[in-house]
Specification:
With about 170 residues, the protein is mainly beta. About 5% of the residues lie in helices and about 45% in strands. Strands 7-6-5-4-11-10-9-8 form an eight-stranded antiparallel sheet. A three-stranded antiparallel sheet has the order 2-1-3, with no helix packed on it. A hairpin with a 4-residue loop joins strand 5 and strand 6.
């Protein structure tokens, strides 16, 4: 993944001149321009995450619910947040540190129609193999925390057929 552009003049110290992929510059004598790249840690973190939304005062209708989030290996995320009686869709781009911010897109008209404010979502994906995501969802009236886990069992990632068999479940009586 692209990280930044650095410039070095006359063999001196390199300084970051841009963090944007498309960089326009003026040619000059004795200037070395270098594009820097980092390992794509998003390949291991890509997948679907599911979790809960809990308000700061505990679980309550206006500020609690659940979410689903999809993360791609290209630093993009999208998801749905079910909170305050609404389904709110969101999407965005993750930074190299795994964090991203989004403002709701779908459901906006419905929220505004009923006098509700826009929802802002921040996410932080664990890029160190923890298979977890955290973040916040907030609007003018409330702020909640997000906490979820990656769905590690699916038909392409981890086949769960090695757990096939008969199991006994005992539920003790009162």
């Amino acid at each position: 993944l692209f990280s930044n552009w650095t410039a070095q003049v006359d063999g001196g110290a390199a300084t970051v001149v841009s963090t944007v992929k498309d960089y326009t510059f003026t040619m000059a004598t004795n200037v070395t321009l270098t594009a820097n790249f980092v390992t794509n840690t998003f390949q291991a973190a890509a997948g679907v995450y599911n979790g809960l939304v809990v308000g700061s005062g505990g679980a309550a209708h206006p500020d609690s619910g659940f979410f689903t989030l999809k993360v791609t290996s290209k630093q993009k995320f999208s998801g749905k947040l079910y909170v305050d009686g609404d389904k709110v869709s969101f999407s965005g781009v993750l930074g190299l540190d795994g964090t991203g911010t989004s403002t709701m897109k779908a459901g906006k008209e419905n929220r505004l129609k009923y006098g509700k404010s826009p929802v802002y979502v921040t996410v932080s994906v664990d890029l160190d193999g923890g298979d977890v995501v955290s973040g916040t969802a907030s609007c003018t009236e409330w702020s909640s925390s997000l906490s979820g886990d990656r769905a590690v069992f699916n038909k392409t990632l981890l086949d769960c057929t090695n757990y096939a068999g008969s199991y006994t479940l005992v539920i003790p009586g009162a």
